[in-house]
TrEMBL record:
Residues 10-275 form the Nucleotidyl transferase domain. The gene is galU. It comes from Streptomyces triticagri. It is an enzyme of class 2 (transferase). Keywords: Nucleotidyltransferase, Transferase. NCBIfam families: galU (TIGR01099). It catalyses: alpha-D-glucose 1-phosphate + UTP + H(+) = UDP-alpha-D-glucose + diphosphate. Pfam families: NTP_transferase. This is UTP--glucose-1-phosphate uridylyltransferase.
Length: 303
């Protein structure tokens, strides 16, 4: 008889970072509110959570993050103006973000790392498994990674992390997982985790990307976790303990993702994400692709 695991309904989105790589744009605007085509990056992340069946979303915020709350709230003045104009299309777009999910907010206070941000969610999450989505990683909705992770957690229990194969020379930019195969091609057993190892020390080229489905046992471990790399409480360190000791709340599995991922935490990748998503839009793509092709051709001829 298959063991039954609680249904996951809650998502946690850490959003307390300062966004220093995007200064001066993020001096007064949260990095999560930077537009990707015509929606803020954070809305893509909330939409992904909702598509995976997670209707209760907690954002862990910090100072100067009020625009996040405003974006997912009603704007009655704007809605009234659009209604009077008879602009039903734009009215629907404005109302879409406020109708997506039940939104909650908690402030992290001291920016003590991702592990500490997750720990701030404990009073809201309670004793059930939950998902964590990092806002810098946008996953294409046609490649439902989070839904697959929720399925694996329901089957295996414990925690599930998202993994992606990267160039070995790039592994020092990520958390890295030591893994063993399972009977399923896209699922591996995680036996160890290392935060941003040097390429020579990395146990694999499987990088942790910003999606997690976590057992609530992680909270107890995070409370006991000493600051690690960078003086911060690392979620990777807590997951390492869960992987080592399944009785503490393990096991830890990984879903190997081979779909489309857009990194908006880096300026160059942010621009690439906008171009890729704009090219694939039915309303923008045809004209934009034609212009882009002409522009690239002219640039090549000019060089």
């Amino acid at each position: 008889m298959t063991e039954s695991h609680p249904t996951i309904t809650k998502a946690v989105i850490p959003a307390a970072g300062l966004g220093t790589r995007f200064l001066p744009a993020t001096k007064a605007t949260p990095k999560e509110m930077l537009p990707v085509v015509d929606k803020p990056a954070i809305q893509y992340v909330v939409e992904e959570a909702v598509a995976a069946g997670l209707s209760d979303v907690l954002m862990v915020t910090g100072r100067n993050k009020r625009p996040l709350e405003d974006h997912f709230d009603r704007n009655y003045e704007l809605e009234s103006a659009l209604t009077k104009k008879g602009d039903a299309t734009r009215l629907a777009k404005v109302q879409e973000s406020s109708d997506l999910a039940t939104m909650h907010y908690v402030r992290q206070g001291d920016p003590r790392g991702l592990g500490h941000a997750v720990l701030c969610a404990e009073p809201h999450v309670g004793n059930d498994p939950f998902a964590v989505l990092l806002g810098d990683d946008l996953i294409d909705p046609r490649d439902p990674l989070l839904q697959r992770m929720v399925e694996v957690q329901a089957q295996q229990g414990g925690s599930v992390i998202a993994l992606m194969e990267v160039d070995p020379e790039q592994i020092h930019l990520y958390g890295c997982a030591a893994v063993e195969p399972t009977g399923e091609g896209d699922v591996v057993k995680v036996t160890g985790l290392v935060e941003k190892p040097e390429p020579a020390d990395a146990p694999s080229n499987y990088a942790i990307i910003g999606r997690y489905v976590l057992d609530p046992a992680v909270f107890g471990i995070l409370r006991r976790t000493e600051p690690g790399r960078g003086g911060e409480i690392q979620l990777t360190d807590a997951l390492q303990q869960l992987a080592e000791d399944e009785k503490a709340g393990g096991p830890v599995h990984g879903v190997v993702f081979k779909g489309r991922r857009y990194d908006t935490g880096d300026r160059s990748d942010y621009l690439r994400a906008i171009v890729r998503l704009a090219c694939e839009r039915e309303d923008l793509g045809p004209d934009f692709r034609s212009w882009l092709q002409r522009y690239v051709t002219e640039e090549m001829q000019g060089s």
